[in-house]
Amino acid sequence: MNAYVTIKALTRVFDVSKPWLNRILERRGKALLTAVSNVDFQIEERTTYALVGESGSGKSTIGRMLVGLLDPSEGDVQVDGVNLATEADAAKVAKVRSHIQMIFQDPYASLNPRWRVRDIIAEPVASKGGETEGLAERLLEQVGLHPSDAGKFPHEFSGGQRQRICIARALASEPRLIVCDEPTSALDVSVQAQVLNLMSDLKEELGLTYLLITHDLTVVRHMADRIGVLYLGRLVEEADPQSLFDAPKHPYTQMLLDAAPRMDGFGREVPPPQGEIPDPIDPPSGCAFHPRCPIAEDICRQERPEMKALGKGRVACHLAR
Amino acid sequence: MTTPVLSIRNLSVEIPTRQGIVKPVDGVSYDISEGEILGVVGESGAGKSMAGNAVIGLLNAPAHISGGEIWLNGVRIDPLKGEEMRKLRGKEIGMIFQDPLTSLNPLLTVGDQLAETMLTHLPISRKEAAERAVAALEEVGIPGAAERIDSYPHEFSGGMRQRVVIALALCAEPSLVIADEPTTALDVSVQAQIISLLKRLCRERGTAVMLITHDMGVIAEAADRVAVMYAGRLAELGNVRDVLTQPRHPYTHGLMASTPLASEGQKRLHQIPGAMPRLQHMPNGCAFHPRCPKVQKRCSHDPLPPMAEGRAACWSPLLAEAVE
Ligand SMILES: Nc1ncnc2c1ncn2[C@@H]1O[C@H](COP(=O)(O)OP(=O)(O)OP(=O)(O)O)[C@@H](O)[C@H]1O
Ligand SMILES: Nc1ncnc2c1ncn2[C@@H]1O[C@H](COP(=O)(O)OP(=O)(O)OP(=O)(O)O)[C@@H](O)[C@H]1O
Ligand SMILES: [Mg+2]
Ligand SMILES: [Mg+2]
């Protein structure tokens, strides 16, 4: 197997301090928010890697660093053997970057309402002076829409159709890697099924690699080849779907799985998870999950657990066996 | 039999538009009994929220009730107007929406909002209201309720805010709560907390709940009965386990089969072909017939067969055929 993406010790810190005058008046220091901390993982070519975790866990921040919308504070992003931060050959970096595309949660906000679908889809190619004749029509067919839709405007389409248009636009520059940030969260199940099936088909046909960002565990289970679980900016567990869903090693993964509603959970009464995600500006000592963890011990409050190999995956928990 | 808390009969809502009159809710009937949670599901645009808003008298003009009846505890409420409806709404019907901020006043502390609501609707003193406000926050699981009582809505996290909304919806001891996508914007862990809270409070007080959502998992875990809506009409109504495991309407079957968990291990998800019709272009006969795998000749012109509890509004229902 071949790692198409290698992420090493990736970290991103945001300065969320108040303006300096307020800081002086209120006698406050700088406030730094570590959104992503020391994250390592690899994505094999032609596979789907899913990042899951609650709101604010850093999923989108990782996705944005991978596509180059955001610079890492520390660490490396390597794609197709090229280190995007240190590579001196600008042409090489540009080439790799052109192979990475992103699609977003909101298919309404991410399409320019005044442009015709043809121009929206061809834009990434047109802006580089590429050939766009018939391109939009071809791509529309590929994503299951009609070539004649190219002349329409976004408001003439439903949510699922708009997400298809977003996918067609992402495909225009012949990407090899697509970062999908909550691609179906705004859609209902029937439309979600259409979009997920399309993503699977395109993966087969075009040999695409996906980074799939979502908090919907049922989607993850259906789509992913490998899953990384994030908590407060850190990877806490990584495994293949079967191991992760059947035998989660991290108490946080276990908590997420227990909390997810089940279609066969008629009248299920389980004690819901305790507490909420802590303030990322002032994270708990030791293991950041310890205040909510049902099995935390002293060591969990004092020492941060390192990520270590366990079974078919990796886990960062002092007590995982 | 005891009178149901809410009883909707043949409810229709109309909106006049430039392309003619459209009917986002068309002849819907269902009951909710004391202590019961009725789940309302269906794709986006099915008319779930419109039906709920009609019950609480919150339709935005030009949408209006054009037919049918709404009964609350044996009293007909659909003819009520303005002030009368507002009073009833606060006292007898509690509301929880997807965005907690729509139900909260940003300029008042949560304690004041709770106390005001109770003072308006319950025969209690100001002092008693203040005490009960703290108890209400404690009951919905807000840590340090006594200290948080003077906080403003923006000082709470999203999940905590939704708890405050639940406290607010329940503090006047209503007999009916309408919860429209109450957890859609929340994380799974917070969602589990909120749903379990709602279930517990309603069971303890015997409140009837209309739970609108398109998450089938939430419905399975929370609802006693479920109403499936399609294009403004009821497609199927019945006990939650029956409807979800042995759907009779081909639409319900399609919805269940397209959720990823139902087709576990399967490479492709089931797809319902096409999309829900626009209200301006409603097909004749059964609105689902253009997408239906079991469509027959009569489906495209005959009016739907009458609906009853445990039945589907369908000419060729799937009989006890489980979801593969
Ligand atoms: N530009 C920014 N400035 C300051 N803080 C930010 C910025 N972008 C993200 N953050 C913070 O970084 C953390 C991680 O955010 P991120 O958007 O990556 O989370 P997420 O896992 O994608 O969550 P969600 O599921 O809500 O999309 C959050 O605490 C967020 O508030
Ligand atoms: N002012 C209006 N004019 C015309 N049609 C309208 C108007 N307001 C709403 N509608 C239509 O009424 C129908 C029912 O909408 P409703 O909000 O009840 O759907 P819903 O089932 O709650 O969907 P969702 O799951 O997206 O919340 C939709 O088709 C909507 O487009
Ligand atoms: Mg995000
Ligand atoms: Mg709605």
From TrEMBL, chain A:
GO molecular function: ATP binding; ATP hydrolysis activity
Topological category with respect to the lipid bilayer: Peripheral membrane protein
Pfam families: ABC_tran, oligo_HPY
Protein name per the record: ABC transporter ATP-binding protein
Gene Ontology biological process: peptide transport; transmembrane transport
Domain ABC transporter: 11-257
Entry's Gene Ontology cellular component terms: plasma membrane
NCBIfam families with a match to the protein in the record: oligo_HPY
Similarity comment: family membership: Belongs to the ABC transporter superfamily.
Primary residence: membrane
Transmembrane segments annotated in the record for this chain: none
Compartments in which it is found: Cell inner membrane
PANTHER family with a match to the protein in the record: D,D-DIPEPTIDE TRANSPORT ATP-BINDING PROTEIN DDPF-RELATED, TRANSPORT ATP-BINDING PROTEIN
Alphabetized SMART domains for the sequence: AAA (SM00382)
Keyword set, alphabetical order: ATP-binding, Nucleotide-binding, Transport
Species, as recorded: Actibacterium pelagium
Taxonomy, superkingdom: Bacteria
Automatic annotation (TrEMBL), chain B:
Domain ABC transporter: 6-256
Compartments (UniProt record): Cell inner membrane
Record's bilayer topology term: Peripheral membrane protein
BP terms from Gene Ontology: peptide transport; transmembrane transport
Main location class: membrane
GO cellular component annotations of the record: plasma membrane
Protein known as: ABC transporter ATP-binding protein
Alphabetical UniProt keywords: ATP-binding, Cell membrane, Membrane, Nucleotide-binding, Transport
Entry-linked InterPro entries: AAA+_ATPase, ABC_Ni/Peptide_Import, ABC_transporter-like_ATP-bd, ABC_transporter-like_CS, Oligopep_ABC_C, P-loop_NTPase
Superkingdom assignment: Bacteria
Keyword Cell membrane among UniProt keywords: yes
Similarity remark: Belongs to the ABC transporter superfamily.
GO molecular function: ATP binding; ATP hydrolysis activity
Membrane-spanning residues: none
